[in-house]
Amino acid sequence: MNELILTAYILIWPIISAAILLVLIVALVRDLRHASKSDSEMI
Known about the structure:
Largest sheet: none
Distance between the termini: 50 Å
Number of domains: 1
Order of helices and strands: H
Helix content: over 70%
Strand content: under 5%
Structural class: mainly alpha
Radius of gyration: 18 Å
């Protein structure tokens, strides 16, 4: 049981990292679209 918990703990970090990366990419794409619609620049 201890090995199962440790394995799950180690394997959950890539999933959390991928979810955070996905949130950041979605926010960036949304900001880029908004900037192009309002004729402003992203720096």
